[in-house]
Design a protein that fits this description.
The complex is a heterodimer of chains A (123) and B (106). Chain A is mostly beta strands and 123 residues long. Chain A has no helices and eleven strands. Classes of the chains: A mainly beta (123), B mainly beta (106).
């Protein structure tokens, strides 16, 4: 059973970089075809896809966040990470990591999710 | 970006009711449409992918249909554990986008 667990600071000051890590257990992030994903949920609003990294290392980002986002993998630790720079209060959200299989027909869907970690941006 | 519009944004129903939630895409997305259920304090849980394919372990009372721009999620007989918020998501093109959610209340 694949499990994902987010970790990182719950409070980040404005203009600083938000750094989160997703630890994956029950499967290797470097084997097989999967997209390792970051999604956030603003309080009282909808879900927003931040981006994902393919098992090969190729990254895809939401254009609205691309200039501030970096998703990377550490295969030795079986984890992947999100760095979001120059944060503001608008980046306050519940951040999830998730997995999407690379379906041969091109379908993407998030079948495993972490429990989420709340990040507040405040001085 | 492809905009996903769900309706209604909330509904009240009773155990045993048949419930239908709709999702409309701002452009044609074929069947690149997923449905998730989110209970309070929990992560979203995949119910349906590719518009009508069941995720393993999902009860058969959930079904999805549609293609192009219009999609539906149907719960044939609402159970107590189904009171939650439901989201649609398109994966036809990046950025992947979600609908605003439909809250199903007692």
């Amino acid at each position: 059973q694949v499990q994902l667990q987010e970790s990182g600071p719950g409070l980040v000051k404005p203009s600083q970089t938000l750094s989160l890590t997703c630890n994956v257990s029950g499967g290797s992030i470097s084997s097989g075809g999967h997209y390792w994903t970051w999604i956030r949920h603003h309080p009282g609003k909808g879900l927003e896809w931040i981006g994902y990294i393919y098992y090969s290392g190729k990254t895809y980002y939401n254009p609205s966040l691309k200039s501030r986002s970096t998703i990377s993998m550490d295969t030795s630790k079986n984890q992947f990470s999100l760095d979001l720079s120059s944060v503001t209060a608008a980046d306050t959200a519940l951040y999830y990591c998730a997995r999407a299989p690379a379906d041969s027909s091109g379908y993407r869907y998030f079948d495993y999710w972490g429990q989420g970690t709340l990040v507040t941006v405040s001085s | 970006d492809i905009q996903m519009t769900q309706s209604p944004s909330s509904l009240s129903a009773s155990v045993g009711d048949r419930v239908t939630i709709t999702c409309r895409a701002s452009q044609v997305i074929s069947t690149y449409l997923n449905w998730y259920q989110q209970r309070p304090g929990k992560a979203p849980n995949l119910l349906i992918y590719a518009a009508s394919r069941f995720q393993s372990g999902v009860p058969s009372r959930f079904s999805g249909s549609g293609s192009g721009t219009d999609f539906t999620l149907t719960i044939s007989s609402l159970q107590p554990e189904d009171f939650a918020t439901y989201y649609c998501q398109q994966t036809y093109s990046t950025p992947l986008t979600f609908g605003g959610g439909t809250k199903v209340e007692i």
